[in-house]
Amino acid sequence: LEENYGDATNESRKQEMGGKDPSPPELLKRIEQMEAELLQKEQRLLKIDFLCENISDLTDRIRAVVENGKQDMLLFARRTNELQKKINDKTQEIRALFAELSMKQALAIKLQQEIRDKEQFVMTTSLMISQGLPPPKEAEKERWKILRNEKMQKAAAEARAKHPAEEEQGAAPSHAPTIPKEEERLPVLRPHMAPFRRSEPSLSPRHFKKPPAKPSEI
Question: Among 59, 80, 136, 162, which has the highest number of CB atoms less than 10 A from its own CB?
Fold first, then answer.
């Protein structure tokens, strides 16, 4: 191949190629066709650029919405924390109220038990008095306690009635101890002042005969 085609003087090295050159009208037609294809490609490229711009605008809007969403989420988190704090405070208040209610219930149960004990004590005392027996010492103490409280309440009411002007002006009451008068003093407890009926002597001993005395052996 080098010997055949390397020599420039060898005319047999050239090779005829088939075909023919297009005529000028055909070339013009081919150029117009290529220009039409180029125009179509440019229009398609413009459409793609327009879509890219729209996508960029949409992306910017989405980014702005996301940023606003972050701010909204921050505000929502703050609001949630505030509400959670309020819920915790209310929970503490409810627990305190439940504790207070439990204390009140315990106090109510205790007072009910005291009422039942007092009723039982009154029934027992009434039964003993109806049978002519002296009442227990607790009844006497309760009686004098009630009398003392009534005396104190009566004295306080009389003091308020004597000084109405001082109470209207908001004068502070005197806390100095006062000595009760002779007629206001409580009576001293004495055995003969017990409020019960003396029992009559029983008639049952007359039905029993005294046993005879046995002689003592020396």
Answer: 136
What is the phi-psi region of residue 19: left when phi exceeds 0, alpha when psi lies from -120 to 50, beta otherwise?
A: left
- CB contact set of 190 (below 8 Å; sequence gap of 6+): none
**pLDDT average, residue stretch 24-46:** 92
Q: How far out from the chain centre does Cα 217 lie?
A: 92
Yes or no: say if 198 and 146 are a contact pair by the CB < 8 Å rule: no
Predicted TM-score (pTM) of this structure: 0.36
Tens digit of pLDDT for each residue in 55-112? 999 999 998 888 888 888 888 899 999 999 999 999 999 999 999 999 999 999 999 9
Instruction: Give the count of beta carbons closer than 10 Å to the beta carbon of residue 129.
Output: 15
CA 188 – CA 191 distance, rounded (Å): 10
Contact indicator for 134, 195 with CB cutoff of 8 Å: no
- How far apart CA 144 and CA 139 sit, in angstroms, is 9
